[in-house]
Amino acid sequence: MNSTKSPLPAAPVEGSAAEYWADIKSMAEEICTEYPDQDADHNDRCDRVHEDVDGSQWIIYNWRIPKVLEYSSNEPDAKEVQSMSGEDADWRKQQQIAAFMAMEADLYEAIKEEDERREEVAETTEDESVRAVS
To answer: Which stretches of the chain are DSSP H helices?
Structure first.
């Protein structure tokens, strides 16, 4: 048997925690690239987060919604979920709103981490440039 390894890393299994976190990281990187100024672009970033989460396969597909709640490090407040879903909402709608809120919080955390990473890279690059000039 020929057991050559592919030079490409294996794709995460569909619906896995690895896929969820890879999607969150990818969205955060895209948002930080498109809107690099944390302060000036704040409203645009918030709009984009809402759009990305709302249109995400993790929120659209019913079989993925419970997985968001399983993988997320953010548990939404039950009273807030109930308030947002309305009195007549069934459990599926409430679960979808809870998943939306959890994923949105995960994405905001990932954006913060990506901003911090980019700041560290910028500082390191700046320090290296100063040393090179000296």
So the answer is: 17-34, 42-54, 57-60, 65-71, 78-85, 91-133
What would the two tokens of residue 92 be? 């599926």
Q: Is the pTM of this model over 0.85?
A: no
pLDDT tens string for the chain (134 positions)? 455 555 666 778 899 999 999 999 999 999 999 999 988 899 999 999 999 999 999 999 999 999 999 999 999 999 999 999 888 889 999 999 999 999 999 999 999 999 999 999 988 876 666 666 65
Asked whether residue 98 is domain-assigned, the answer is: yes
Query: How far is residue 10's CA from residue 8's CA, in Å, rounded to a whole number?
Result: 6
Residue among 66, 74, 31 nearest 52 (CA) = 31
Q: What total number of domains does the chain contain? A: 1
Let me know if residue 6 belongs to a domain. no
Q: Is 58 among the domain residues?
A: yes
Angle between helix 17-34 and helix 42-54 axes, rounded to 10 deg: 150
Residue 59's closest CA among 20, 99, 27? 99
Q: Is residue 126, in this structure, part of any structural domain at all?
A: no
Token code pair at residue 102: 């959890």
